[in-house]
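At this stage, I put together one protein's amino acid sequence and its backbone structure tokens, which the following lines show:
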Amino acid sequence: MSYRVAVWGATGMAGGELLRILANHPNLEVVCAVSRGSAGKPLWHDHPHLRLWYPEMVYSSPDEAMDIPTDLVFLALPHRGAWKVAVDYRERGVKVVDLSGDFRLKDPAQYARWYGEEHGAPAYLEQAVYGLPELHREDIASSSLVSGVGCNASCAILGLAPLASTGLVDSVRMELRVGSSEAGGSPSKGSHHPYRTRTMRVFEPFRHRHLAEVIQETGLPEDLFTMTMTAVEMVRGVQMLAQVTLKEPVKEAVLWKAYRKATEGRPFWNVCPARPSHLRLPDPRFVLGSNHCSVGFVLHEDGVRLLVVSALDNLMKGASGSAVQAANLMLGLEETSGLDGAPIYPA
């Protein structure tokens, strides 16, 4: 079975990653790549690594794209720029996976708080399913509107959700170390290479808007969290370090049981083994180019203090990979279709 898909925001990094995944997907055919500013230009001018896979394809304008029959669309558009397109497609009966932040939060009041304005289509917030299949596989499979996931949020959620389910969490102090591709393709003083290289710059000391997703998806109260963001010398990748305090002392076996139960049957979510010790806590380098998230933890001898570390590729599991995984479920395909490539190492 083959399905026709469109990619909006196709000139960007997430859009390019979608096109890379879809180039070898056995069931999804890209029928148009959409860009307002580059309509009519060859796709491979922005994505030269894809020239052999899309030698003749040129970008379609938004108006042209709306006239092309599709079964599902991916919206890799800027925040606040996707909801109108999503609503238009849904009114036409087309399934939508939106990679932006426009449909991630269920509560309109929380959306206004974290994104600084009222939502343009609040009725659709309740309809949308948060697009992390590890937590919402069944709901995604029956949905026609799935949100994207924040890359930092998905790293934190997958690291902490098994622990949150135990009811033992008293406080969480997270630091997320992020690569430069998280900032997108438009350089600023903070993200432009000459200013960013060889740095370890703390750009958010306590709060980041992706924290709203972590609170929503783990069910833990906001006052338990701090979320520090640090820009480091990577292009791809996110690593979360969470210093967790538990409500009472526990044995390590309790934690192993919680993490193994949560990840069982989830093909892209894994727990690092206890040995060898230098591989117990994951490095983003070990998952780059893949749709995998790895999690590891170490419990202090007091049984109360815990370090949880998770790592993923922000353009894959943190964005386009999860989006394709969700699309597979929405269309009744094998969840891993087009996504079973191994990480690239060394990178």
Remarks:
- The radius of gyration is 20 Å.
- The chain has a mean pLDDT of 95.
- The first strand starts at residue 3 and ends at 8.
